[in-house]
Amino acid sequence: MNNPASEAETIWRPEVIPGQQVFLSHIRREDIPLFARWFSDLEFTTYTGAIGMSSTLEQEEEWFASITKDPTIKYFGIVVCEGQQLIGNISLKQINYRHGTAEIGIGIGEKSTWGKGYGSEAIRLMVDYGFTFLGLHSICLWHTSFNERGHRAYLKAGFKVAGQWREAALFDGQRYDHVLMDITREDFGPSQLRSMLQQLQDK
Ligand SMILES: CC(C)(COP(=O)(O)OP(=O)(O)OC[C@H]1O[C@@H](n2cnc3c(N)ncnc32)[C@H](O)[C@@H]1OP(=O)(O)O)[C@@H](O)C(=O)NCCC(=O)NCCS
Q1: End-to-end CA distance of the chain
Q2: How far is the CA of 201 from the centre of ligand 1 (A)?
Q3: pLDDT tens string for the chain (203 positions)?
Q4: In angstroms, rounded to a whole number, what is the distance separating the alpha carbons of residues 19 and 172?
Q5: Residue boundaries of the structural domains of the chain
Q6: The domain 4-200 is classified under which CATH number: 3.40.630.30, 3.30.470.10, 3.40.980.10, 3.40.30.10?
Q7: Which ligand 1 atom lies nearest to the CA of residue 109?
């Protein structure tokens, strides 16, 4: 059987949002089997907040068809610069252009790459894209209180705790809070992506 991870590794991918360790690129139809592998894993899906979910290939195909048509969602793949491996995905959802708000979501499916700084960099890149290119003002997220790695990664990316939905998540008979975090344009500071426009580099 072909290994979807090794297939995806060899594909050239456009560097849509460039970074130091990772860049953000498009998700392709050919990547769906890899997504199906990630989203079948109960540990991974539980950390994403979808406790107990394990997706099939067909469900991932439906998901892919739905996001490509939805103007309130921007989805990218997270690619490690060295070796060009696609390791996860990141999104801005519920984009509200009137109020300049959105919710960010991230999942690194390649578990061996957790804790290497890829997630926090990808979050900063996506937030910068949202503020600089989409004109957003405030971005939020929810995570379960047992997701300490996620919490640390979001803090490192500049998010602040904005509130708690107490005891709203249940796992193995124990209740956990949903933690709300947010970041505003002002919190974020100067855009790193602004310099992508050559004529604005020194201004
Ligand atoms: C959450 C996620 C995106 C973070 O990306 P990452 O590349 O692993 O994170 P980073 O390496 O950038 O940062 C992780 C931070 O957590 C810390 N950390 C690592 N493992 C940890 C653990 N087991 N417990 C607590 N903290 C941990 C790291 O030390 C680092 O913090 P520091 O640099 O301040 O010391 C990624 O782990 C992931 O996709 N996890 C599964 C899905 C998920 O949780 N999605 C988010 C849903 S809200």
Answers
A1: 53
A2: 32
A3: 344 545 545 688 999 999 999 999 999 999 999 999 999 999 999 999 999 999 999 999 999 999 988 999 999 999 999 999 999 999 999 999 999 999 999 999 999 999 999 999 999 999 999 999 999 999 999 999 999 999 999 999 999 999 999 999 999 999 999 999 999 999 999 999 999 998 887 76
A4: 38
A5: 4-200
A6: 3.40.630.30
A7: 39
Cα(149) to centroid(ligand 1), Å: 3
pTM beyond 0.85: the answer is yes
Q: Tell me, what amino acid is at 81? A: C
Compute the Cα dihedral for 81, 83, 86, 88 and give only its sign. Answer: negative
160 CA distance to ligand 1 centroid (A)? 16
Could you tell me the two tokens for 184?
A: 């505003």
Around ligand 1, the residues with Cβ closer than 6 Å are: 44, 47-49, 88, 106-108, 114-120, 143, 147-150, 152-153, 156
Say how many Å lie between the CA of residue 150 and the centre of ligand 1.
4
Strand 101-108 with 138-144, pairing:
parallel
Q: What is the largest CA-CA distance in the chain?
A: 57
Distances, alpha carbon 134 to alpha carbons 85, 100, 110, 121, 142, in Å? 27, 8, 29, 19, 21
